[in-house]
Design a protein that fits this description.
Layout: H1 3-26, E1 32-42, E2 58-64, E3 67-71, E4 79-85, E5 90-96, E6 103-104, E7 118-121, E8 136-142, E9 155-161, E10 164-171, H2 173-177, E11 184-196, E12 201-208, E13 213-214, E14 220-227, E15 237-242, E16 245-250, E17 265-272, E18 279-286
Parallel strand pairs: 1-9, 10-17
Antiparallel strand pairs: 1-4, 2-3, 2-5, 5-8, 6-7, 7-11, 8-9, 10-14, 11-12, 11-15, 13-14, 15-16, 17-18
C-alpha cells in the first residue's frame, strides 16, 4: 500500500467518525439524543447576574455512569448543544472562572469519577496556598426529561458562586507588640485545598497567604480575597506572624463563636489590640457590598 493511499484511508476514516459525531448532534437519529443547555448565573440571593460579567468563562464537563466522557465545546454566548448516545445517564458539570493562575485545573482521563475529578489551589514557593479565583459551579442531570423537544426548548444550568471572601484589619498592632523591622504576614487556615466535581471541599487543610498592606499607623490590612468555603462542622484559624514567629492566633470571635466563611459572602475581621485583651469583631457582608477599593 502506497504512502499516499494509506494517508487517504486514515483521512476518510477520520472524516467518517467526525460526521457520525456531528450527525448525533444535529440530527434526531436512532440511538442518539441531543440536549440544548443554556447557562444562567445567580448570586447568593438568587438574583440573575448573567449579564454583569461576574463569570468570564465557562467550562463544561460531561460524565456518564462510568465517569468522565469529554469536554463540551464552547457554545454561542451562553447556549450549548450536546449530542450523546441515548442509553447513557449523563451529568453535566459546569465551572465558571476556572483560572489557571490560581487553580490547578486537571486534564481529566476518560472514566474519572465525579468524586475523583478535582481542581486544587496553587501554592506559593513556601508551600502556602494562593487565593482562589471567583469560582462558580453547578451540575445538571441530562435524561429523557431534559432532551431537546420539538419546540426547541432548552434546559438551564444555574451557576452559583462556590467561594467565600475574607478581609482582615488590625488596630493598634505596633502598640500591642512593639515596633519592629520584621515583616508582618497572615496565614488563614481553612477547609481542604481542593474541590471535587460534586462541589465538595476535599484534600489537605488549606493555608492561604494573602497579600497584606501596612499603613502609616503601623496597622495591617488584608484586602478581600477568595477562599474555599468552610464546611458546616469546620472553622477558620487566623495566624499572625512577625518574621517567622507566630505572635497571635484565633479561630473564634470575641463572643466565642467559631470563625466560618460562608459561600457567596464576605467575612470581615477586625482584630483590635488597643486593650490588654485582643478583640475579634466580625461582620458578614454581601459580595457586592465591599466598600474598599480592591479587586475581588
Amino acid at each position: 500500500m502506497s504512502f499516499f493511499y494509506k494517508h487517504i484511508c486514515f483521512f476518510m476514516l477520520g472524516m467518517g467518525l467526525l460526521l457520525m459525531f456531528y450527525g448525533c448532534i444535529r440530527e434526531d437519529t436512532d440511538g442518539c439524543a441531543q440536549y440544548a443547555v443554556s447557562v444562567k448565573i445567580v448570586d447568593a440571593e438568587n438574583h440573575d447576574i448573567t449579564s454583569t460579567g461576574a463569570v468570564v468563562s465557562v467550562n463544561l464537563y460531561l460524565f456518564d455512569q462510568n465517569g468522565f466522557l469529554r469536554m463540551v465545546p464552547k457554545g454561542t454566548s451562553t447556549d450549548y448543544l450536546i449530542g450523546e448516545a441515548s442509553d447513557k445517564d449523563l451529568t453535566l458539570v459546569a465551572w465558571g472562572n476556572l483560572e489557571t493562575d490560581s487553580l490547578e485545573v486537571p486534564e481529566l482521563l476518560v472514566g474519572t469519577s465525579l468524586e475523583d475529578a478535582r481542581i486544587a489551589l496553587l501554592k506559593r514557593s513556601n508551600g502556602n496556598n494562593l487565593p482562589s479565583s471567583d469560582l462558580f459551579y453547578n451540575r445538571l442531570d441530562l435524561n429523557a426529561d431534559t432532551r431537546t423537544s420539538v419546540n426547541g426548548s432548552s434546559s438551564v444550568i444555574v451557576l452559583q458562586r462556590l467561594v467565600a471572601g475574607i478581609s482582615i484589619r488590625t488596630n493598634a498592632l505596633e502598640k500591642y507588640f512593639g515596633a519592629s523591622a520584621e515583616t508582618w504576614h497572615i496565614i488563614v487556615h481553612g477547609a481542604g485545598d481542593s474541590l471535587n466535581f460534586l462541589g465538595c471541599t476535599t484534600g489537605k487543610q488549606s493555608g492561604y497567604e494573602p497579600e497584606t498592606v501596612l499603613n502609616a499607623s503601623g496597622d495591617l490590612y488584608v484586602p478581600p480575597f477568595r477562599i474555599f468555603p468552610t464546611e458546616q462542622d469546620g472553622n477558620l484559624t487566623i495566624d499572625l506572624y512577625r518574621g517567622q514567629n507566630k505572635v497571635f492566633s484565633t479561630s473564634m470571635d470575641e463572643d466565642g463563636n467559631t470563625l466560618r466563611a460562608l459561600t457567596g459572602k464576605i467575612l470581615n475581621l477586625n482584630i483590635d489590640f488597643s486593650s490588654a485583651h485582643s478583640k475579634i469583631i466580625v461582620t458578614v457582608s454581601d459580595w457586592e457590598d465591599i466598600t474598599q477599593n480592591t479587586d475581588m
